[in-house]
Write a structure and sequence with these properties.
The chain is about 55% helix and about 15% strand. By secondary structure, it is of the alpha+beta class. Strands 1-3-2 form a 3-stranded antiparallel beta sheet.
């Protein structure tokens, strides 16, 4: 359910176009959706795709 932060960044343009949003708006939501390693040590930086899609839907008023 997670993708890398870089993977999410690469898709910003496509997601913005398909949702009719600005790239800046999508970028801000992606940045806010980044999950950091537990205690800063365990795990990786990642983006949960489901949570990101919910945040995008909420930003569009869906």
């Amino acid at each position: 359910p997670d993708i890398s932060v870089r993977g999410a960044e690469i898709q910003i343009r496509r997601v913005a176009a398909s949702r009719g949003m600005s790239e800046d708006a999508v970028r801000k939501i992606v940045e806010a959706s980044v999950e950091r390693p537990w205690l800063g040590l365990f795990g990786t930086y990642k983006v949960n795709v489901l949570k990101l899609n919910v945040a995008l839907d909420e930003a569009q008023g869906r």
